[in-house]
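[scheduler] slot 2 assigned
[scheduler] job type: sequence-to-structure, two independent chains
[scheduler] chain ordering preserved from manifest
[runner] begin chain α
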Amino acid sequence: MGMFKAIRIDKTESGTSAALSDFDDAELMDGDVTVRVTHSTVNYKDGLAITGKSPVVRRFPMIAGVDFAGVVESSTNPSFKAGDEVVLNGWGLGETHLGAWAQKARVKGEWLVPLPKGMSRAEAMAIGTAGYTAMLCVMALEQYGLTPASGPAIVTGAAGGVGSVAVSLLAKAGWHVIASTGRPQEADWLKALGAAEIVDRAELSNPGRPLGKERWAAGIDSVGSHTLANLLAQTRYSGAIAACGLAQGMDLPASVAPFILRGVALLGVDSVMCPLARRKIAWERLARDMDKAKLASLTTTIPLTQAIDTAKLIVEGKVRGRTVVEIA
C-alpha cells in the first residue's frame, strides 16, 4: 500500500472544497482492475462537481474526474491483464465511485473499454466523455434514419466539448452543419471544424413559439430548456433532435405541436450507463471517423495542478473545445 496524488473533494459546513492531496491506496473502492491513470479531461460535469453548483458528488471524500485513459497495473478480471491500455467514462466515476483525477484508480473491469487501435491515450481523452457523447448522438440520429441528404443539422453549445466534437463528426460525415454559440469570436474556429453556418445562441435561448419555420432536419443539443424547445419547434417534418445535456436548464418549456404536427422525434442520449456493446461501437467509430488534425485543433493540454481552476472556468462558459489533463 502507498500514497498517490489526487484531486479530492470534501464536504464542508458551507458546501464542498476541492484540493490536490495525497490519497491512500487503502481508501480505494472495490474493483477487480487497478489502473495507472495517465490522462483525464475536464468536462462540464467535472466543473459542477468541483464548484458544488450541482449535487454531482454523492459520497465524500470523492476523487474528481468522470473519465480516464490509462494502463492496467493489476487485474483479477479475465478480460484484462497488466499492461493493457484502457478507457473508462461514466458508471458513476467522480460521482459515487472514486474518480479519474488521480494517479491511480480501482474499478470494475466491466466498466472498461480497450483503447481502440490507432488511438493514443491522450487522443482518447481529447475525445473524452464529451466526444463519446457526441458520437452516441450521431449514432442515435443515424439509427433514426437521418442522413446528410435529410437536410441541415444544428449543434448547440458548439464551442463546448460535446458541441465542438459533434460539429467535426457531422461535417466529416457530409452534413451541412449549423453551429449555435454565444461566443461570436469563435466563428472562424467553428468553421475550421466544419460548420457551414453560425447562429447566435440568443436566437434560440429565449422563450419561443410552439411551432416555427422548419430550418433543420437533425440536431445535437447539450443545452436543454428553451434552447431545446426552440430546436424542436424549428425541426423539419420527420426530423429528430438528440438531447444529451442541460447547460441552460433541466426544464423543457415546449409544446406537443412539433411531435403531433410534424412527427418530430426527441432522442434521449445517456453516456453514463450506456451498455458496453454500444460503448465499444462508439469508441471504434471515433477511432475511425474523428479527424485527428481537427481533434488536435480543438484540444488544450494542462497538468493536474491546473484542473481545479479549469473546472471552474468551464462552468462559466470560458473553456473552448476539449481539455486534456495529464496525470504526472
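[runner] end chain α
[runner] begin chain β
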Amino acid sequence: MRVVAPAGGMPATERSGERTVSVRIVVAEDSYLIREALRSLLDAQDDLELVAIASNLPDLLAAVDTHTPDVVVTDIRMPPGGRDEGIQAAERLATSHPDVGVVVLSQYMEPEFALRLLDTGSRGRAYLLKERVGDLKEIRQAIATVLAGGSVLDPSVVDALVAARRHRDDPVRSRLTPRECEVLGLVARGLSNPAIADELTLTSRAVEKHVTAIFQKLDLHHDDTAVHRRVRAALVYLAASDT
C-alpha cells in the first residue's frame, strides 16, 4: 500500500467506566458477498464499530447524516447509476462532513477515479482495489491513515501511472531536472526522504534540496503543510501521465 501522507496509528481504545470508544465506520457496498466480508472483518475488531451498512448512494449519505461516523468504506460503483457513486460520496462529504475519512474500493484499476478522488482534496482519502478487502492489515492501515488525515493510493494504480509516464513527454518533466524527475517519481510512490536517499544513493540533505526545488518549480506554496505539498506534487506527477 502506498501511503502518500503519513498515517498515525489506530487510536487506542479508551474506556470511560464500561464504555469502549471505537472508530465508527459506515460501509457502502451493493455486492452482498463483499458487504458481508467487510462486516465479518470489521465486527471481529474490538476497536472498530460498524454502525451502518448501505447499498446505494442515497442510503450512504443518509447513514452518514444519522450516525456521523469517523470513516466511510465505500464501493466506487453502486446504485443508482453504477458509475462513480463512491467518488460522488467523497466529494459531497468533503463539504457536508469534512472530518469523515473515506476509503474508496474499486473492482478494477481506474487511475482517473483515483486522481479525481485526491485532486479535490487529498486529506482523509484512500483508493484501494477490492482485492485488498480480505487483507485485514491493509484495511486497518487505510482506515488509520484516513482517520489521521492522510492519503492512500493503491500501489497497482501508482505503478501503472508511473509506467505510463516513462513513455510520454509532459510539461512537468520540462520544468524539472532529470534527477528531480526521479525524486518526484519516488515521492509519487509514497517514499519518505530517507527512503528516497537510500533508493538513489544520495544524502538526506541532497534529497531535501531536490524536494524543495520541486515544490518551488511546481508552485506548491509554503503555506501548505509539508505533507500536503508532497501529496499535491504526487498528483501533479500522476495527473500529467493520465492526459
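[runner] end chain β
[qc] chain β: The radius of gyration is 19 Å.
[scheduler] slot 2 released
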